[in-house]
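Recall the central idea of this unit: under ordinary conditions, the amino acid sequence of a chain determines the structure it adopts. In this exercise we apply that idea directly, starting from the sequence alone.
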Amino acid sequence: MPEQPSIYSLTLNDLRDYLVSKGHAKFAADQIFQWIYKQGVIDPQLWTNVSKKIKEDLIINFDLSVPTIVWNGLSKDGTRKFLVKMIDQQTVECVAIPAKDRLTLCISSQVGCAIGCTFCHTGTMGLKRHLSPGEIVGQFLAVTLWLKQNVGESERLSNIVYMGQGEPLHNFDNVKKATIIFMEDKGFGLGQRKITLSTSGLAPQIEKLWDFPPINIAISLHAAHNNIRSELMPINKAHDLERLFKAIRSVPLKAYRRITYEYLLIDSLNDRPEDIEALAELLDKEKSKVNLIPFNEYPDSKFKRPSNAKIIWFQEELLKRGFVCTTRTTKGQDILAACGQLKSEYEKLNLWE
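Accordingly, the structure predicted from this sequence is:
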């Protein structure tokens, strides 16, 4: 890792405090944020309204390098997957997902993941390390710059989902700080409803969400029976459904009117009539939204995707019971960019410099 801290790990207040501590003008922090995050200009020499002394100070004392995109793949549906290399050569994947009125970046919070969900390709990596706030922000910045240079000025990221590699709440403090940076009006200025954090259900960390920026929250539920959820998600053995929902009820909803419950549909495992009944009993229909995710198969996965007819039936049964329920459109499956398919496989690309 570099000796200098990443400038992209600093919130606006952090940068203001640093400048003041060095005898510089506090307001320059606002100008620097606008150059980096609004204008996409990361070379200090091009910051025309920032003093030479401040620029020299930052160049000496901070790492201004952006994570490197070493590979990208374009799906037939327009989804783009990026393999991003950090300064210590570790890599993560993130995915730009187009929709009618937005371009969402599915962002990673860790190199690998410690949760070990049996349906997830990332889980086969294990956890290598947390990402710093600057590396989380750096993914968004790197993809923003790549799109500007390779696609065009109009191709801009508008939303973030923490649904890439890693468990965001396992890296609570760094993800929190990155989120503050993303939401800063003088920077990217992403609104609270433009950012969604998905968690596998770390109950003690969910209870800390009162001290997190008020963004959208999604829970990876995937089963309404403890035995099935424990088979899919080993974390359920430590934080079972009773413990998980006790934690969820302890957190004020703040800006999110509903909590989204992600439910991975797997053939003959959790797509049965008794699963419908258990879900209807478990969830509060006034505060819940169910997002069905048909399983995305990957090499060596033991689970299978249900038929389209079963997926439609499952959604209709929940709608009949008064739930808000959607089915996620699978994006990027042909380049292993769909939900649960991300894994850093840099060594296979033969791209070492």
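The chain has two domains: 7-61, 68-349.
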